[in-house]
Amino acid sequence: MHQTFDAALEINLLHANQAGAEENRRHFEDWGITCFNIMSSPGAGKTVLLERTLEALSPKLKIAVIEGDMTTELDAERLRQYHVPVIAINTGRSCHLDSKMVSGGIHRLAHEYNPSEFDLVLVENVGNLVCPAEFEVGEHQKVALLSVTEGEDKPLKYPVMFQEADCLLITKIDLAPYLDIDLQRIEDNVRQMNPNVTIIPVSAKTKVGLEDWLAWIEKQL
Ligand SMILES: Nc1nc2c(ncn2[C@@H]2O[C@H](COP(=O)(O)OP(=O)(O)OP(=O)(O)O)[C@@H](O)[C@H]2O)c(=O)[nH]1
Ligand SMILES: [Mg+2]
Fold first, then answer.
1. Residue 95 in contact with residue 126, Cβ under 8 Å?
2. Which of 1, 32, 68, 69 has its CB 3.0 to 4.6 Å from that of 97, i.e. a possible disulfide?
3. What is the predicted pLDDT for the residue at 2?
4. Mutation test of ligand 1: which of 48, 95, 161, 203 has the most ligand atoms closer than 8 Å to its C-beta?
5. For residue 69, how far is its CA from the centre of ligand 1 (angstroms)?
6. What's the 2 CA to ligand 2 centre distance in angstroms?
């Protein structure tokens, strides 16, 4: 009885979230904005990747960031140094952004700026390899990061994130020589979950692979 009730509640929750995500996407499209939802475990390198991305692209593209964190504005403050609008959303006890929270961020962006001026909105989700993949926020593409330090088996153990991703970045590849890790096995495990996903190995530290990531972004616009 309880299980049926819980399942029905979860379905309603996801339906309501989906409707909100579609409304957010309509706003983005009215304004000519492409939106990426960037997701990973805590510490896989989302904010550093955004720093390198803003450094490279913000001179030629008009970019805004929606930064999801449970309690702090630490990541938002890091990204504000790149002179782009960064809308910080604290999710409190929630382990992911949902479409309603992002809708609040979109309204703040539209209130403070002319949204039609933007080309790209980058949403950094809360660090979590499970829940963010279930809740669309209105993005056009889902970008997942998996760092080499997390282990080759993660695509098999946490499949939804890898099934949902349009682009999968294998991050921190500069650390691979110091670990007992097989990059090819990571790729094979990702492909087992999602045969057509774009896979880009990168290091934000040495900048290896960054050109491929930037080229992928430009292709989506
Ligand atoms: N060696 C190395 N370290 C990296 C790389 N990218 C990120 N890091 C380090 O990994 C740590 C976490 O990076 P963040 O960018 O803060 O990770 P995050 O995914 O934004 O973390 P949360 O927002 O807390 O989920 C930091 O100490 C970074 O310096 C990389 O390419 N190579
Ligand atoms: Mg971060």
1. yes
2. 68
3. 62
4. 48
5. 15
6. 37
Angle among Cα 205, 217, 135 to the nearest 5 degrees reads 95
Q: Exposed e or buried b for every residue in 2-30, given b needs 16+ CB within 10 A?
A: eeeeeeeeeeeeeeebeebbeebbebbee
Q: Could you tell me if the CB of 75 is within 6 A of ligand 1?
A: yes
From the CA of 201, which ligand is nearest?
1
pLDDT mean values, one per 10 residues, the chain (221 residues): 73 92 98 98 98 95 97 97 97 96 97 97 98 97 98 98 98 97 97 98 98 98 95
Q: What are residue 144's phi and psi, to 5 degrees? A: -110, 145
Tally helices (H) and strands (E) across the chain.
8, 7
Residue 68 is encoded by which pair of tokens?
Answer: 């999801």
CATH number at residue 215: 3.40.50.300
Rounded Cα distance, 18 and 3, in Å: 22
Measured CA to CA, the distance from residue 75 to residue 52 in angstroms comes to: 14
- Determine the structural domain holding residue 168 and report its residue range: 2-220
Domain count, the chain: 1
pTM for this predicted structure: 0.95
Q: Tokens 């809708």 label which residue?
A: 103
* CA 203 from centroid of its chain's CA atoms: 17
Q: What is the pLDDT of residue 9?
A: 80
Number of neighbours of residue 96 by Cβ within 10 angstroms: 21
